[in-house]
Amino acid sequence: MLKSSFKKIPGGSLLLTALLTGILAATGVYAAFASVYQPAQVVVAARNVEPLKKIGPGDVKVITISRRDLHPRALTQLGQAIGAYTRMPLVEGEMLFPEKLVRDPGQAVEAYGTMKPDETLITLKSSQVNWPDVLRDGDFVSALAVYPDRVEEVATHARVVHNSKPLPILGELQSAREAEARPTSEITLLLNREEAKKILMATISAKLVYLLPQSPEKVAAR
Asked: Which residues form a coiled coil (predicted)?
């Protein structure tokens, strides 16, 4: 009678079970990742761009990001940006929005026509400062920086040029996961150069920075 040439490996069934479990676990991780990460294209500044400049092919580029990080108003095609003029400075890597560009250079110049010599524009992200959703373009705000040992007003009077944070839907309560999935918002302020420096420094050194809307009475008193 012929005997099998294969020898039974001690614990072989356990090894096979462990191997199959590992394969299934890896498959599950990949499936979970694929369901969360959905690629999307977005137009960003390829380098720092000065205001009132006509955008050329070398000023912008398309990158791929997760769809959950794509702002609904962000530009997704180079043709939407090339040939337009910048309303405000663009920082390398930032997403482009229609509000930051204009096709008519005369409109771009008009946007800067009311700026005083000692004023500047700064764009801040929601990861740097906090502000209420209800702020609208044209509103005025002050800025408070919270340090471990004090609270300091770092800006007394700044005008909101653009707020990209979407207004919340009435009656809607966002879960923690939905809040995390919310794209990073930006706010652009027109203010005194010295106070602009203070805000930017506070975003680095302070624990928190808040933008607080000013009352109409305080704005009228200036």
From this structure: none
